[in-house]
Specification:
Layout (H helix, E strand, L loop, with lengths): L1 H14 L6 H16 L3 H13 L11
Helix pairs in contact: 1-3, 2-3
Length: about 60
């Protein structure tokens, strides 16, 4: 679970760097990324948070 979340989170960070707020990240690219991989935006934001912090609690409640 954490490995999959970590990889998706790394991709999310590559697409929307950490200096972007969550809303800016969603507005610029993450909504489209989520749609392309068949995932919801909340899960993509959660894996991005996990990639930023390394805290597995960020993944709680996701489909991962």
């Amino acid at each position: 679970m954490a490995a999959a979340g970590g990889r998706l989170g790394q991709i999310a960070l590559e697409l929307a760097p950490a200096y972007l707020s969550e809303q800016e990240a969603v507005d610029t690219v993450l909504a489209r990324y989520a749609d392309d991989i068949g995932c919801d935006v909340e899960t993509i934001l959660a894996v991005r948070r996990y990639a930023l912090t390394g805290d597995r609690r960020a993944l709680e409640g996701t489909w991962l």
